[in-house]
Amino acid sequence: MKICQCLSCRQLPHGLYSVIITILAILAWIAAAFQDKCNYAHVRGPIVEEFNATSPWLAFGLVGWNEPIPIPITTTTTNGTTTTTDIIYQSSSECQSYPPFFLASLDSMWSTGKTLAFFAQCIGGGGSLFVGCSLRIIFSKATWKWTGYLFCLASLTQVMSVWVWLMNDVCQWNSCNIWNGSGMDILSSALWMIAGLLMIFKYPKNRLPHHHDDHHEDDHCDHHHDPDHHHDNDMMHDDHDYDGHNDDTQCHQPSEYAPGEIQNVVDVEEPPSPQQAQRNDNNSNHVDDNNRRRRRQQVLPIESAQVA
Asked: According to CATH, what is the number of the domain 15-201?
C-alpha cells in the first residue's frame, strides 16, 4: 500500500496544469511537422500558364507543387439527362517537384521562409518533448518559465516563416493566399503561444509531500507499536536507555524543554555492591603483582651485566 502511495505521489507533480500545456505543445508540433508541404499557398496569375496547367490556380508548397483536380457538378433533369452545371477544383495529394526554370528564379525570401519554418519545428518540437517530462519530474520556477519563453520563440519563428515566405518574388506578380499548409503553421503558432503564456504567467507548485524529521519519528513510533513486528522486536522493547526510559516512553512523552534550551543531565554513579568491591580489589592486586614481576625482569639483565 505504501509503495502504491509513493508512486502516485510522483505522477503529475505539477497537477493537471502540466497535462494541458503538454497537450497544447504536442498538438502544435504535429500541426507544424506532419502537414502537406505542397499545399502551402493558393496561387493564381501568370505563373499558372508557365506550368502548363489546365486549372485556374495551383497549390505551391515549400518543397513542391500540385495541380488541383477538376470535379464536375452535375444535375439530372426530369427527362433523365445529366448536365454539368459547374466545375470545382480540389487540391490533389500528388506532390510534384518544381521544374528547373522555376528553381532558378527563387529568391532569398523563399529560402529564408523555409529556414525559419525548420527552426520553428526544431525549437517547438524540442520544447514539447521537454515539457512532457514535467508529467514525472519537478521543474523549478526558472526552468518552467524559460520553457514558456522557448514556446513563445517557436511561435514567433513559425508565424514569421509564413509571412516571409509569402513575400517572395512569385507572390509579388501573382496572387498568393493562405492555404492548408500555411494555415496549419498559423494554428501551430497560436497553440505554442498559448502554451508559452500559460507557463510564463503561472507556475504550478509541485504536489509532492514534504518529509520532516517528526514524520520519521512518528514512523519509528508506529513501527514499535505495530503488532506485526511485535515478535521480532521483543528485545528492543525490553531494552532501556541510560535514563531509565524505554523507546515507547521517548516516542510518546513530550519534551519538557523548549526548542533551543539546553538540558543539563547529571550522571549519578551508584556505589558498588560488596561483591563488586571485593572483585575490584582482587583485580587491582593482580595488576600490582604483574607490574612488580615486569619491573623485576627488566632489572635482572642490568645487574648481570654489571657483575660481569
From this structure: 1.20.140.150
